[in-house]
Specification:
Helix content: 25-40%
Number of strands: 9
Strand content: 25-35%
Shape: elongated
Structural class: alpha+beta
């Protein structure tokens, strides 16, 4: 999953019991910073859950690349299975599990594509070989052999041997704008702490509820 590109995030909480937080973004930012220090690799890895045309759930790991008050951003090939599912049903769920901290964050909400300028700016930060890979891979499509994929990579490396590698038109990002965010903290004897933030729509105030574990 790694492509070594930077991630941008909002400023987090600096102290205090997480159950006292009155909104989820700053709390997430605080936990995210801690996870970045404690996880062995890729604290920005998250499960993305979608549904297909038959309503059958689908889940896979992706990387968070940015988050702010608008939502949580990740990138993909738009022709991939997840790209097609997100465009057909623009709702999804995310799960972060930071084993080193015994913490989990769950988000559910609506999906919208990022602006072309935003996708272009992020694509420019990717390592050159990752940019080439975005052109070479027909993500989720049947692949006859590994050699065929390597041949495609070589062909695109030759094509873009000089100059900037442009972003493919079928490669972009999505933003999940959460309507429900749940924070889970492990406690001894399974007496965990769970706090849910919920809002009726984007821009509306958050309501906080403590949940039984």
């Amino acid at each position: 999953m790694s492509d070594s590109a930077p991630i941008q995030h909002a400023r987090g909480l600096t102290a205090g019991d997480f159950t006292a937080a009155d909104e989820p973004l700053r709390l997430f930012a605080s936990w995210f910073v801690e996870a970045g220090r404690s996880e062995v690799a890729e604290a920005n890895a998250m499960t993305l859950a979608t549904v297909d045309a038959d309503g059958l759930p689908n889940a896979r790991m992706v990387l968070l690349k940015e988050f702010d008050e608008r939502g949580f951003v990740f990138y993909t090939n738009l022709d991939s299975q997840k790209g097609q599912e997100l465009r057909a049903t623009p709702k999804a769920a995310l799960v972060f599990h930071w084993k080193s901290l015994s913490r989990q964050v769950r988000l559910r909400g609506t999906i919208e594509p990022v602006a072309d300028a935003e996708a272009d700016a992020y694509f420019a930060t990717r390592p050159r070989l990752a940019q080439i890979g975005a052109w070479a891979s027909k993500q989720s499509a049947p692949l006859e052999s590994r050699m065929a994929f390597e041949r495609s990579v070589a062909l695109h490396m030759a094509k873009f041997a000089v100059g900037i590698v442009p972003r493919p038109s079928n490669w972009s990002g999505f933003r999940l704008s959460p309507l429900i965010v749940e924070f889970w903290q492990d406690r001894p004897y399974r007496l965990h702490d769970r706090i849910e933030f919920r809002r009726g729509g984007l821009g509306e105030p958050w309501r906080k509820t403590r949940l039984y574990p």
